[in-house]
Amino acid sequence: MMIDTGTLGFGSGERAVYAANPWASRGRMFPEEESLTRSEFQRDRDRIVHTAAFRRLKHKTQVFISPDGDHYRTRLTHTIEVAQIARALARALKLDEDLAEGVALVHDFGHTPFGHTGEDALDEMLKPYGGFDHNAQSLRVVTKLERRYAEFDGLNLTWESLEGLVKHNGPLLTKDRKGIHGPVPQPIRDYCELHDLELASYASLEAQVAAIADDIAYNTHDIDDGLRSGLLTFEMLEEVPFLAGLMAEVRGRYPHLEPSRFAYEVTRRQITHMVEDVIGVAQDNLKKLKPQSADDIRAANHVIATFSEEMAETDRRIKKLLFSHIYRHPDIMRIRAGATQIVQDLFKAYMDDPTLMRSHYWVDHIAGLGQAARARHVGDYLAGMTDTYAIKAHAALFDHTPDLR
């Protein structure tokens, strides 16, 4: 994919007409005085970084359960890597870098302990009460569960940051001849009744680059962690022609490179090619659309920042590789089974006796609530746990806790 280097943004002060404008934000649910030193999106990003939810990402699984080793990605290191890629894309496309970075930093706030395994387990337990969705949980965290400010619950983020959090992967509702329809997680539906995030439209281009940055980051870094763990080999990477080509390039230039340096040279090229592909596609889409505002991006009815058809096929092949050799590996599946048991056991224990959730600020009120409301509080409590805290909590209540090593 060819890039128009003449239109690239290299200075943080450049902003295109289609970029989100922090000085013309749609505002916050609770009005606040403007800052003398920071834009509204800078304030959002800073609030996100200073949360307990952000710190807890340090001990939440990305792929490999955190006790497995200090060198594997956690949700926190993954999040930082996503933010770096999102900011690079935003700068190249002359977007608001602070908004793109903020959406990237907050996008995984709702993830449970033990990665997608914990989410699947919690969703199963909450099925009778509306289920569990990590994106909806992220919204609950930043609008309700973070309790630090004197005048409101949550972080009181701008409309644009909340829109990006909820819709970075696309609209939640579909517009067609039958009208506007589609399943929306209840927490998102409830919030939008108070503060409409326009679920049938696409999000800003800043949110879109945060979403594609997430794909680029985990595709690349799950390969890196897989090689480090031994579940992946360089020979396995040959299954993907794109990766085979990168390895041939590195071997040709550095024929005697040690494995760890070889792996890094391959993955850094992978990121570069994917980022440049997205920039080229986005530039082509922008030339066709000719947007004059951020709302023109929202009304485009298609994604602007995405992969080319060729890179999208590479993306599918990489995901297939990761699923077959890592995500469904017998060792990982054994650990996933143990993690599922921990989440399910804790959910049942807390539903039976909410007073066991000693650090939950609603614990004194939960006993009088109905089952659905109680279950949602238990879900909030469990989703906020780190891997290490969940393991300790289980060990304190049960005679046997699965070994997740």
UniProtKB/TrEMBL annotation:
SUPFAM superfamilies documented for this protein: HD-domain/PDEase-like
InterPro entries: dGTPase, dGTPase-like, dNTPase_2, HD/PDEase_dom, HD_domain, PHydrolase_assoc_dom
UniProt keywords, alphabetically: Hydrolase
Superkingdom: Bacteria
Domain HD: 75-219
Family as reported in the entry's similarity comment: Belongs to the dGTPase family. Type 2 subfamily.
Name by which UniProt lists this protein: Deoxyguanosinetriphosphate triphosphohydrolase-like protein
